[in-house]
Design brief:
418 residues; 7-stranded parallel β-sheet; Aldehyde Dehydrogenase, Chain A, domain 1; alpha/beta; 40% helix; Aldehyde Dehydrogenase, Chain A, domain 2
Length: 418
């Protein structure tokens, strides 16, 4: 089954690679319209998945990730329209030059070919990664989690209807709707047909793919994210940034996990932080050195941090806090505990800001801004297929250009090498 899917996807990718931008955009817009038109069927399927997840005892964070409503469907449809409005990278010419030997040389962007995406919980991924794949001329093989299988079936039906309507090959989108995990093992060996594998889920999924795949793997999307509040920071403005980074949507990878506070302002800032965020039902895991500043608060609101707490991606309304002596200690803590996703500094000191940017090695580094901006849409890229925390090929939100590779094109005058 998997081999046949991969072969169909590879064959369809050759047609899709030649599709005109207009045709691809028509497909994306048709998909957006059909999602809205078919919302009763999609939401009904999703309600069944949510109920099944609740019966299975999935965490509130996982249930929030898999849940759809009209507002979220509207956002998914809007992201497709945003991608349709973006420039098509396929065929883009760059690094053109004429060489002393007479060759006229340039690079030209081309699709990767076939992408495979393995993901958990979030049915929005089904639409968003497919939209990006189609815009870049790539076929795609989707393998969602068993907890969202009914929702994904409904969404894939919409995708294929839009492709048929637009004259694109529906075989370019393959969906593994069998939850048997043995099929994943088989998929990971399809290096002859699949050009890139993107796992989207927890650390166990990423590690499993890295250890078992013969396909190049792009990993990321696991964020232990930090903000350092420098002694010079505007405290009122910093509280707003931290609140946004932690509370707006705590179940996502760019939500804030740890606040580091300069010792010089800890006595005033830490109690204000707890007082402000307790109204949002945030609870705190405080390092030993932060507890003396929080004597006015008791458990469960403020609890001593455990040995693993600063290495935990909370994905919930839990926030770690620690006092540091200054910029050096903050950077050391981030180097020891960050996953390289999104980390930032809140400061009025330009030198500290510059040092932080230069020395913190994360995919996105912020100065006086919320970590919640690490997102393809917020970066002006449209929806993203993943947020890469590695260094090769792509880093940060992976959108259109990151789903292409390039070829060298050399033009001569019947030239021969001397």
């Amino acid at each position: 089954m998997i081999k046949e899917m991969c072969n169909q996807a590879k064959e369809a990718s050759q047609q899709l690679a030649l599709a005109q931008t207009r045709q691809k955009n028509e497909c994306l817009l048709a998909m957006a319209d059909l999602i809205w038109e078919q919302r009763p069927a999609i939401l009904n399927a999703n309600q069944g998945d949510v109920q099944g997840a609740e019966r299975a005892g999935l965490s509130p964070a996982m249930i929030d990730r898999l849940m759809l409503n009209e507002s979220r469907l509207e956002g998914i449809a809007a992201s497709l329209r945003d991608v349709a409005a973006l420039p098509d990278p396929v065929g883009k010419v760059f690094d053109a030059r004429e060489l002393p030997n007479g060759l006229r040389l340039h690079k030209q962007r081309v699709p990767i070919g076939v992408l495979a995406v393995i993901y958990e919980s979030r049915p929005n991924v089904t639409i968003e990664v497919t939209g990006l794949a189609l815009k870049t001329g790539n076929a795609i093989i989707l393998r969602g989690g068993s907890e969202t299988i009914a929702t994904n079936r409904a969404l894939v039906a919409v995708i294929r209807a839009a492709m048929q309507q637009s004259g694109l090959p529906p075989e370019a989108v393959q969906f593994i709707d069998n939850p048997d995990r043995a099929l994943v093992n088989e998929l990971l060996k399809m290096h002859d047909t699949i050009g890139m594998l993107i796992p989207r889920g927890g650390n166990q999924l990423h590690q499993f793919c890295r250890e078992n795949s013969t396909i190049p793997v792009i990993t990321g999307g696991i964020g232990i994210c930090h903000l350092f509040v420098d002694e010079s920071a505007n405290q009122d403005a910093s509280l707003k940034v931290i609140q946004n980074a932690k509370v707006q949507r705590p179940t996502v990878c760019n939500a804030l996990d740890t606040v580091l506070v300069h010792r010089g302002i800890a006595a005033t800032f830490l109690p204000r932080l707890v007082e402000r965020l307790k109204a949002d039902n945030v609870t705190f895991r405080a390092h030993d050195n932060a507890m003396p500043y929080l004597k006015g608060f008791s458990a469960p609101l403020v609890q001593p941090a455990g040995s693993e707490d600063f290495d935990t991606e909370w994905l919930s309304l839990v926030l770690g806090v620690k006092v540091v002596d200054g910029l050096e200690e903050a950077i050391r803590h981030i180097a020891a505990h960050s996953t390289g996703h999104s980390d930032g500094i809140l400061t009025e000191n330009p030198d500290h800001a510059n040092q932080f940017v230069a020395r913190v090695d994360s995919a996105a580094v912020y100065v006086n801004a919320s970590t919640r901006y690490t997102d393809g849409g917020q970066f002006g890229l449209g929806a993203e297929v993943a947020v890469s925390t590695q260094r090769l090929h792509a880093r940060g939100p992976m959108a259109l250009e990151e789903l292409t590779t390039y070829k060298w094109v050399a033009q001569g005058d019947y030239s021969v090498r001397p």
